[in-house]
Specification:
Number of helices: 16
Radius of gyration: 21 Å
Oligomer: single chain
Strand order of the largest sheet: 4-3-6-1-8-9-2-10
CATH superfamily: Alkaline Phosphatase, subunit A
CATH class: Alpha Beta
Strand content: 15-25%
Order of helices and strands: EHEHHHEEHEHEEHHHEHEEHHHEEEEHHH
Number of strands: 14
Organism: Sphaerochaeta associata
Largest sheet: 8 strands, mixed
CATH architecture: 3-Layer(aba) Sandwich
Number of domains: 1
Shape: globular
Structural class: alpha/beta
Pfam families: Sulfatase (PF00884)
Protein name: Sulfatase-like hydrolase/transferase
CATH topology: Alkaline Phosphatase, subunit A
Distance between the termini: 41 Å
């Protein structure tokens, strides 16, 4: 245990933010001054990951501190709704205030989740979620993904209005409620930017539409890496038909959405300072997963490339080292113990033997820097299950029934060279697979996930009956009345 001094904690989680689209992560074009300033004031983790590169399972893992397969959070139709403790449960049981404002994407807003003060929460629609995404075969496609790219441009949507309302309510909370708290409080803010729809207010779009943006890695069709699972994901999303003009306009819009998000975060941080709480409050910024946005000829999430499974993670506070960059391997399951640690409840997560560690512990204990990081994917656009293990410089991706991938991120941060076929790396490949299998049985979990998804579909009369007249949605609607 790190024995940090108890302080307030603000967790800011965006949605689908590629870490390469931040100034502090090396992007020379994008304007993200508020998040960049947060990184200057604290620790920026270069090698942070989600534990499942899709919204609902990622967030379910984050709030419970457990991997998706532990409780069956397979896809966007299988979500946490109580039944095991969340970090909210632990805080509430011990008399601490935890307030959430914005997107959580759990099953519902029930008190069983441990989050008793949820404001304008966005969860699964009617507790059901994306049942269409539980269908995982090569007959299914989602052409709407291409339309999302083709419709990118300036404007206002429910999502931009929702993020502004989250900002407004966060400011009100910090100015008028937080100062009177007797114990350290936890405030969770769930923004929806830069998740599609790819629409952003005109002033943000204009910043980038005529700029020379950083070209996504392997974005030209002749450079696309070929792999059965990736190729089928391109088919599923109709990515083969994304023109260079559409891709460029979508990327400019996405840049604008990242800057729009940064402005919202800036307003929140200004309110914290105005309330006189900056000295006694730590801030953690991250996202639920990334968006490859054209990297490797792929868009959106659902893959184990860095743009999708990697996430930004920044921890700042007056008692944390400043101007610090950490290459420690961390992931979203570390948030549960970090949040409890920040307010003074480290003993309560230590008893649970969670797979994650407090980031405060990671910062003071070099032996924790090279813990293995694990991620999994069993959702839409992937006819098989994917597993990722990051250990040391190596990243191993296991596809059940299909060829694996192996990258040395120290020598090849852009993941251009798959080492699986090189005999010199046979020992590394074997060692990484053995380590993965010490965590999970990939084949058994792949079967378990599909069985659970088929069982869900049976409640609708089976796949064929469910598909009659069904139109899959691209994103969850905002709460009524916002």
């Amino acid at each position: 245990m790190s024995n940090v001094r108890p302080k307030n904690m603000i967790v800011i989680m965006s949605d689908q933010h590629n870490k390469h689209m931040l100034g502090c992560y090396g992007n020379p074009v994008i304007e993200t001054p508020n998040i960049d300033a947060l990184a200057t004031r604290g620790v920026r983790f270069t090698d942070a990951y989600c534990n499942n590169p899709v919204c609902v399972p990622s967030r379910s893992s984050m709030v419970t501190g457990q991997y998706s397969h532990t409780h069956g959070y397979w896809d966007n139709a299988h979500a946490y709704g109580g039944g095991e403790d969340s970090f909210g449960t632990k805080l509430h049981q011990n008399g601490y205030t935890v307030t959430t404002i914005g997107k959580m994407h759990l099953r519902n807003d029930s008190a069983e989740t441990g989050f008793h003060d949820q404001r304008i929460p966005l969860h699964m629609v009617n507790g059901i979620g994306d049942v269409y995404g539980s269908i995982r075969d090569k007959k299914i496609a989602r052409p709407q993904f291409l339309k999302a790219l083709e419709s990118a441009g300036p404007g206002e949507t429910d999502y931009t209005r929702y993020d502004r309302e989250i900002t407004r309510q966060a400011r009100e909370y910090l100015l008028h409620e937080a100062p009177s708290k007797e114990k350290p409080f936890v405030l969770y803010l769930g923004f929806v930017s830069p998740h599609f729809p790819l629409t952003v207010p005109q002033e943000y779009f204009d910043k980038y539409i005529n700029q020379s943006l950083v070209k996504p890695i392997q974005s030209d069709p002749e450079q696309w890496p070929s792999h059965p699972v990736l190729n089928d994901y391109r088919r599923y999303c109709n990515m083969e038909h994304v023109s260079s003009e559409v891709a460029q306009r979508a990327l400019a819009t996405y840049y604008g959405m990242c800057t729009f998000l940064d402005d919202q975060i800036g307003t929140v941080l200004n309110a914290l300072q105005e309330a006189g709480l900056e000295e006694d409050t730590r801030i953690l910024y991250t996202t639920d997963h990334g968006d490859t946005m054209g990297e490797h000829g792929l868009f959106f999430k659902s893959t184990m490339y860095e743009g999708s499974v990697g996430v930004p993670m920044i921890l700042a506070g007056s008692d944390l080292p400043q101007h610090t960059v950490s290459s420690a391997l961390v992931s979203l399951i570390d948030l549960y113990p970090t949040i409890l640690d920040s307010v003074g409840l480290s003993s309560f997560y230590a008893e649970e033997r969670l797979p994650g560690n407090s980031l405060f512990e990671v910062l003071i204990d070099p032996s924790l820097h090279n813990r293995p990081v694990f991620s999994e994917y069993h959702a839409f656009g992937s006819y098989t299950s994917q597993f990722m293990l990051r250990l040391g410089p190596y990243k191993y991706i296991h596809y059940v029934g299909e060829p694996s991938q192996l990258f040395n991120l120290e020598n090849d941060p852009d993941e251009l060279h798959d080492l699986c076929s090189q005999s010199a790396y046979a020992g590394v490949l074997e060692s990484m697979e053995q380590h993965l299998r010490s965590i999970v049985d990939p084949e058994a979990l792949a079967q378990q996930a599909k069985a659970s998804q088929l069982q869900l579909l049976e409640t609708y009369g089976g796949e064929e009956e469910f598909l009659k007249g069904f139109k899959p949605a691209l994103f969850s609607p905002i709460p009524k009345g916002v």
